Amino acid sequence: MKRFLPWLIVIGTLLLIAFVVRHLRTSSAATYQTANVTRGQITQAVTATGTLNLKNAEFARDKNPIEPGCACPACREYSRGYIRHLVKAEEILGLRLITLHNLHFYLELMRQARNAIEGGCFNEFRSGFVSAYKTRNTDLLGETPA
Ligand SMILES: [Zn+2]
User: Fold this and answer.
1) Range with top average pLDDT, 20-24, 31-35, 47-51, 138-142
2) How many A from CA of 116 to the centre of ligand 1?
3) Which of 20, 63, 92, 97 has its CA 20 to 30 A from that of 36?
C-alpha cells in the first residue's frame, strides 16, 4: 500500500484540480478566471464557500477580508471594501491582491487535499469541499463579468 501512496496523492490532487477547473469553466466568469488567474485581470476571488465578485456593490462597505481566516497578505491587511474600491478605481493593486489571495487559496487547497489523501480521508474532504462550494453568478449591479 505504501508503494502506491505517492501515486494516490498525485491522482487525488489532479482530481481536485479538475473539479475546481471544471467548476470555474461552468461558472459565468469561468474561462475568464482560469485563463487569467496569474495575470491579475480578474475581479473574482475564490473562497472555500465559492467565488466572490469584488466588483459587486454588496462589498462596498464590507470590512471583512476576502476570506476570514485566510493567512494570505491580502486577507491579513485589506478589506473587501477597500479591494473593491481599488478595482473600481482601476488601481492595479486591487487585481494583484485578488490574484495573491487566489493563488494562496489554490496552494492551501492542494495542501489540504494531500493531507487528506495521506490521512486516508480524501473522500470526506472532497465531499465537504464540494458541498460548501457554491457558485455566485449573480451580479448585484446587473453587470456581467467580462
Ligand atoms: Zn486570502
Assistant:
1) 47-51
2) 21
3) 63
Indicate whether 138 belongs to any domain.
no
Distance 123 CA to ligand 1 centre (A): 25
SS3 44: strand
User: Does pTM surpass 0.90?
Assistant: no
What CA–CA distance (Å, rounded) separates 108 from 112? 6
How many structural domains does the chain have? 1
Q: Cell 494570505: give the residue.
A: 72
Tell me the pLDDT tens digit for each residue of 84-103.
999 999 999 999 999 999 99
Please check whether residue 145 lies inside any domain of the structure: no
Which DSSP helix (H) or strand (E) runs through 24? helix 5-26
Can you list the pairs that 19-24 forms with residues at least 24 positions away whose Cβ atoms lie under 8 Å? 19/126, 19/130, 20/46, 20/106, 20/109, 23/133, 23/135, 24/51
Instruction: Give residues whose Cβ lies within 5 Å of ion ligand 1.
Output: 70, 72, 75, 101
Q: Are 32 and 113 in contact (CB under 8 A)?
A: no
